[in-house]
Design brief:
Radius of gyration: 21 Å
CATH class of the largest domain: Mainly Alpha
Number of domains: 3
Largest sheet: 3 strands, antiparallel
Shape: globular
Number of strands: 5
Structural class: mainly alpha
Helix content: 40-55%
Number of helices: 14
Strand content: 5-15%
CATH topology of the largest domain: Multidrug-efflux Transporter Regulator, Chain: A, Domain 2
Strand order of the largest sheet: 1-3-2
């Protein structure tokens, strides 16, 4: 029988592993999504209840404490439970925990629900420009995009129509209208605005996407990653964006788990699928049929190769959000 842990048990286990924590930290981390909420068990009439965490959440706590001691802050730590959900399934980190972790991660990325601090907003804008800016883009246009995007993030109001011309001048300074990037991975200014819009919408309303859409995002991410790893050597030869198509180490996959989920969900919110209804690659198939995926095996092999297998099923009474 799997061991269960009370709050005091977790504190004692952490101390045995060399970490000093308080009950308050556990409460805070549950609210942030770093840990799942405990299960409550009644002690009988008028005796109240007691809260327990399962074995896997105990292991998660120790891992988080180790990473925090190495210097990781709350935002990056959110990637760990989200990665567990992506690669190992709900038994390791349930979806309710993932939603909270993504919301917390968004706060630290400069895309909170009620607007970001100006410093975080400018940092998020600078990272965006650093990834997609054209070498020939003018300094004044880069600054205009940074200020415009940072203002939207700090005010909590996304305006795609206002953002698009700013992106065009930085992404395509010569006004060629030609997408950039390798065949199969080309991007246009419109694509970039949609990508950013999708991420923004997800992080503003992380409780809104249905459970089935999250399930699709996990399936689509895992299947797309396999295709990316196969095509990556070709994509990396592109003179323009080749630097973005690096071979991911396992640490890269973990540290980008939140971004991967948010980006995949965002695509479903702002773009129509090229796949027909009925295909598993189409999110509407999952939503219409209340599909749920279940990870059955995760295997790690040499050179950072990870293989995930699972089944897809239609549970009875699977309630979804609008």
């Amino acid at each position: 029988m799997e061991r269960r842990y009370t709050r005091q048990d977790l504190i004692a286990e952490a101390q045995a592993a060399g970490y000093t924590i308080s009950g308050r930290l556990i409460t805070d981390w549950v609210q942030l999504g770093l840990l799942d909420q405990p299960e409550r068990h009644g002690l009988g009439r008028e005796n109240g209840s007691i809260a327990y965490w399962p074995e896997r959440q105990h292991h998660l706590l120790i891992t988080l404490l180790a990473k925090r001691q190495e210097g990781a802050h709350v935002g990056p730590l959110c990637n760990i439970p989200v990665w567990l959900w992506l690669w190992f399934g709900d038994e390791y980190a349930p979806l309710r925990q993932v939603r909270r972790a993504l919301q917390t991660w968004g706060e630290f990325q400069g895309i909170p629900r009620k607007g970001a601090s100006w410093t975080r907003a400018r940092h998020a804008a600078s990272e965006f420009i650093g990834q997609v800016g054209h070498p020939k883009a003018k300094v004044k246009d880069r600054k205009a995009l940074q200020e415009g995007l940072a203002q939207m993030l700090s005010q909590g109001r996304f305006d795609g129509d206002r953002l698009l011309p700013l992106v065009r001048r930085v992404f395509d300074p010569r006004g060629t209208g030609v997408p950039r990037g390798p065949i199969g991975g080309q991007l246009s200014p419109e694509d970039l605005v949609n990508l950013f819009k999708g991420r923004y919408l997800v992080l503003q309303h992380v409780e809104t996407p249905s459970d089935s859409l999250f399930e699709w995002a996990r399936f689509f991410y895992l299947s797309s990653l396999q295709s990316y790893l196969k095509d990556r050597p070709y994509l990396a030869t592109d003179l323009d964006f080749g630097k973005l198509f690096t071979e991911p180490e396992l640490s890269d996959i973990i540290n980008n788990a939140c971004l991967s989920v948010v980006s995949t969900l965002g695509l479903a919110l702002v773009m129509l699928s090229d796949w027909p209804i009925g295909a598993l690659e189409n999110p509407q198939t999952w939503i219409a049929n209340h599909l749920q995926g279940r990870i059955t095996r995760t295997a790690f092999e040499g050179q950072g190769q990870v293989h995930v297998s699972g089944v897809i099923l239609t549970p009875k009474g699977n309630a979804t959000n609008p």
